[in-house]
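Training component of the fellowship. As part of building independent skills, the fellow (R.M.) carried out the full modelling exercise for a liganded target. The chosen ligand was pyridoxal-5'-phosphate. The inputs are recorded below so that the supervisory panel can assess the work.
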Amino acid sequence: MITDSWNIRAEAVLPGGVSSNVRLSAPKVCFTGGAGSRLFDVDGKEYVDYLLGQGPAFLGHGHPEVTAAVSEATSRGMVFGAQHTLEIEAAEAFLDAVGWAEQVRFGVSGTEADQGALRLARAATGRNRIVRFSGSYHGWLDNVLMDFQAARPRPASAGQPAKSLSDWIVLPYNDETAVEQAFTDHGDDIAAVIVEPVMCNNGVIPPEPGFLDLLRNLCTKAGALLIFDEVITGFRLSRGGAAEVYGVVPDLAVYGKAVAGGWPVSAMAGSRDLMSLIASGTVNHSGTFNASTMAAAAVIATQRVLREDPPYERIRAHSEKLKASLTDIAVRHDISLRIHGVDAAFHVGIAKDPSANSKVSTYQDLASLDLARYSDLTAAFARAGLWVAGRGVWYVSAAHDDTDIAFASRAFEHVLAEVSAR
Ligand SMILES: Cc1ncc(COP(=O)(O)O)c(C=O)c1O
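Fellow's submitted model of the complex:
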């Protein structure tokens, strides 16, 4: 297979053969490209893609409007060391979609936008402690990367100084009592609560009714800021993201992935008042490549597509149909599939105990699922032409249609038939 020779070349020049550690555990394939909901590898094999590059390809791969806009922008040059027209239009389009925010700073990765929001929250409040929730992910840098399994903040990487995590208070997601207690104990020291409003990184866990409101109220009362990490949920749940869907307005929010149709763009948004700390230079947020012409053009084109042809109802219907098909296949093969999440992103797992209630509302509840068993299946899924993540997250894009459900269902059926025959 041609794939094998590319993988040998990859291993020779890229650590682990990959460019992000998240990909170390992915099946060894080598893609040449994608179109819409499909990917193609060097052997000419076609895959239906429900991973979307971990989320960014929300409009599908190579969306013609985004591609044309980026290519036109490239011809104007890339960065000028000063503002340009596209960047202002991108900010206007972005804020129109988000609704509640007054100003936005663009960046390149979600990780750095999270850093900006945390720095801004500490500067605005003069406090240091930050509340977060176990299982959430806010980037790979020293002061945020945490071992998901640990009850207390613990580095997840060699070389990460343990003391860089000393300001965190880590609580179980959806646990109102724990959050109330943390504010009782440390309210005066808490600069911010940062939360993935739907905890997509581990389990795609929606907030229990009232949970986000509670965070909002506690933050307001204590003079702390509420930061929504909408890197996954932004523009994917609705144009206004989770803030719109759940009707809770944060003080700051961070976006990435879907904001620019797959182009590397992130954003940090908030009120003019908070952003004035950046405007005055009191808080530093910088970046050579921030709001390049291509990035800005990609934001404008993506936001235009989402505004003029909102995919959210299509995605809801697709997601329902796809989940029903997967569930039906699993039942026929006597496998206890558990699916939960939201329309555009859901988690697929296999229950350890088929008779147990596997409701998942915290990261800890994922222990009821045999995550390793599911993860082991992803190589077989890939061989059958179904591209999904080992962690169980499936993303639905605006480009998916019924033919993708049929394709994915055939692959899923093929693998589950093999498993149940063992
Ligand atoms: C919720 C959340 N925040 C931040 C990040 C970091 O974004 P990036 O990988 O673009 O640095 C991610 C990445 O998956 C994420 O899911």
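The panel noted the following from the submitted structure. The radius of gyration is 21 Å. The chain has twelve helices and 14 strands.
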